[in-house]
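dude i think i finally got it to work??
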Amino acid sequence: MVVEQYISDLLYRYNCVVVPSFGAFLTQKSSARLNTVTNTFFAPAKSISFNEQLTSNDGLLVTYIAEMEKKTFEAALTAVEEVTKNWKSTLAIGDKLSLPNIGLLWINTEGKIQFQPYQEVNYLTSSFGLTPCKSIPITREILKEEVVAIEEQIPFIISPEQREKNTFRPYLKYAAIILLALSTGLTGFRFVQDRIQNEQVARQEAQKQITRQIQEATFFDTTPLELPTVNVDALSSAVLNPITTGKHHIVAGAFRIRANADKKIKSLQDKGYNAAYYGTNAYGLHMVTYDRYNDAQKALQALKEIKRSQSRDAWMLSEK
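look at this
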């Protein structure tokens, strides 16, 4: 009777197969693994272990043998006990017991049974047909750039016959250099063109900002204001004549009509400012100033105060 064959059959379906009066073979599912030394892939499997403490007969193995051998339970049990007695005798004299498709058993120096499972059979039914697969290490392809660098460093001696066969290679190199130069030139041309265009846009934007600031600081009023009676002699020097002293002028506004400019000068003078007529600007507008200064720092302080208390549209005009 080949008991180990029946044990092997039951290990496919059960996690524990007890051999009466000998021990139990246990299985436990293990994940797929890779042997990095041999580059071998192993599918998920059932790992087998042996426990000599489990010797009580659970009837699984004996019942299965009785069915397969067409014997009674008692006859099958007697046959199993006879086989296990021979197994124990083999181990007792120091020999190793080999159970095909299961594992190898022997007794150590402490009198304990040791077990080493065989790996030829995978008892996990879900991994049926998945045999170990050995893979060859992949050798990565060397990049072409590295090969070219090596060719440049190491001189090659080419015979005339070989050079005639490979005369197309220099032309390919020259063609690649020409294509690279053309692409670089086109890229540089586009970069310069974009930069010129950006500078033009920046100039236009700056001109718009300057024009807007001039317009914000200008009072456009095309209707002459009605002037009260004014002593022309008293204002002739301060109002009618352009100012000539001071380099930094605090501009109050610019008017298309001179009469409105004179009205503005009188209004500022009534408030205590040393207002005066500056002259006309590039747009033909009559400019009126709050005051003028030779010291730029004092002019800036005065402009800050005027912006805070009088008009946020005031601005400073400095002469060279």
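The domain at 232-318 is CATH 3.30.70.1070 (Alpha-Beta Plaits).
im so relieved honestly
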